Amino acid sequence: MKKRILVTGGTGYIGSHTVVELIENDYEVVIIDNLYNSDAETAKRIGKITGTTPHLEVFDLCDGKKLNKFLDKTENISAIIHFAAFKAVGESVNKPLDYYRNNLISLMNLLDAMIVHQIPSIVFSSSCTVYGQPEKLPVTEHTPIQPAISPYGNTKQIGEEIISDTISANHGLKAISLRYFNPIGAHPSGLIGELPRGVPENLVPFITQTAIGIRNELQVFGNDYNTPDGSCIRDYLHVVDLAKAHVAAVDRLTGDKNKKRYEVFNLGTGKGVSVFEAIESFERVSGVKLKYRITNRRPGDIEKIWADPSLANREMGWKTVYSLDEAMRSAWKWEKSIRKII
Ligand code: NAD
C-alpha cells in the first residue's frame, strides 16, 4: 500500500513541485490549501505531469475544527509536509499580526492534530533567514541563529522552536526542519511554477517579468557591497532539486532512518551567486537583454549568504543537480507559458 502524505500549501510554488516528486516516488498525496496564494488549477496541472491528480481539500489551517473534521475521515497519514504560510518579508513588516497568526496558529493546529490523530512525523519549511548575516561562510546547521529582522523570519524561528519543544514533550512524534536557501526556477514541463502576487520581492520573478515587459526595468539594490562585483550574493537552488529534498526527508522519517527525533538540514547548492551573475545567466539562456538600474540598498537585505549543504548530502543522500542556467531557462519557460506567449 502507498504511504499517504498530507501536504499543506501543496498548490503553492514549492508545494506543487514537491507533490509532483512525491507522486513520482510512489507516495499518495492529499493537499490542504486555502488558495490564498495559489490556484486549484495547479492540482489538475500536477495531474497532467504525473498522471495522478492529487486530492485537494480547500480550507484555512487556522480553523482547527475543520482540520480535525478532515482528519477524522482521512486515516493513515504517514507524514505531513507543512508548506502553508504567508511568505512576503516586506509585507510582514506592515502586517505582523497577520503573519504571526497565520504562520503560527496553522502550525500549532497541525501539531495538535498529529497528537490526536497519531500522525507520526512532520517536515517543516524553514528558511536561511534564521541565520541573518552570518560572520562565517558557508553556513552550517551550527551557525548561530540571529535575532530575526522581520516578523516573517521570526515566524520561522518561533516555528522551529514550537516544533522542537513539541517533539521533546511527545515521544511518539518526530520532525525535520529544512532551511531553504533561495529556490528559483520551475518544472521543466512549464506547467507549474511561481505565481507572485503584485510586485515580486524575489530576484528571479522580477527578472522574468522585466524581460517579458510587465516591469519597465529591474532594480539592482546596491552595487557597493563588500562582494567581488558589489552586488548581493545568494545561494540559488532549482525548485525541483528542493522538491526532491522533501521526498528524501519523508523517506528518512517514514523509513525510521532519522538519527534524532528532531533534525535540521540546510538546503542549498553550496555556491554563492551575485545579482549580476544571475542577470548574466538569464541573458545567456533567454537571449533577452535586461534593462536594469542600480538603486540604493534595500533595507533588510543581507550582503551575502550561501549554504554548506554537506549534512543533507551525507545524511539524506540529497544534493542539487540542476545548474543556475537550467533554473533560469525553466523560469523563463514558465514566465512565457503563463503569459501565453508560447
Ligand atoms: P506559496 O505562497 O507559493 O505557497 C504557500 C501556500 O500555502 C499557498 O498555496 C497558500 O495559498 C497556502 N496557505 C497559506 N496560508 C494558509 C493557511 N492558513 N491555510 C491553508 N493554506 C494556506 O509559498 P512557497 O514559496 O511555496 O513557500 C512554501 C513554504 O516555504 C512557506 O512556508 C515559505 O515560508 C517557505 N519558504 C519559501 C521560500 C521561497 O523563497 N519561496 C524560502 C524559504 C522558505
How would you describe what is shown here?
There is one protein chain. This protein is 41% helix and 17% strand. α1 (13-24) runs parallel beside α2, α3 runs parallel beside α5 (96-117) and α7 (203-212) packs across α9 (275-286). It has helices spanning 13-24, 41-50, 64-73, 89-94, 96-117, 151-169, 203-212, 239-254, 275-286, 310-316, 324-338; strands spanning 4-8, 28-32, 55-57, 77-82, 121-127, 174-180, 182-184, 218-221, 233-234, 236-238, 262-267, 273-274, 292-295. The protein is of the alpha/beta class and 342 residues long. It has a seven-stranded parallel sheet, sandwiched between helices. A two-stranded parallel ribbon has the order 7-10. A two-stranded parallel ribbon has the order 8-13. It contains eleven helices and 13 strands. The chain is globular. It binds nicotinamide-adenine-dinucleotide (NAD). Residues 9, 11-15, 32-38, 60-62, 83-85, 87, 102, 106, 125, 127, 180, 183 line the site of nicotinamide-adenine-dinucleotide (NAD). Nicotinamide-adenine-dinucleotide binds next to α1, α5 and β5.
List keywords for this structure.
single chain, 342 residues, alpha/beta, seven-stranded parallel β-sheet, two-stranded parallel ribbon, 11 helices, 13 strands, 41% helix, 17% strand, globular, binds nicotinamide-adenine-dinucleotide
How are the SSEs placed, and which strands pair?
Elements: E1 4-8, H1 13-24, E2 28-32, H2 41-50, E3 55-57, H3 64-73, E4 77-82, H4 89-94, H5 96-117, E5 121-127, H6 151-169, E6 174-180, E7 182-184, H7 203-212, E8 218-221, E9 233-234, E10 236-238, H8 239-254, E11 262-267, E12 273-274, H9 275-286, E13 292-295, H10 310-316, H11 324-338
Parallel strand pairs: 1-2, 1-4, 2-3, 4-5, 5-6, 6-11, 7-10, 8-13
Antiparallel strand pairs: 9-12
Helix pairs in contact: 1-2, 1-8, 3-5, 5-6, 7-9, 7-11, 9-11
This protein binds nicotinamide-adenine-dinucleotide.
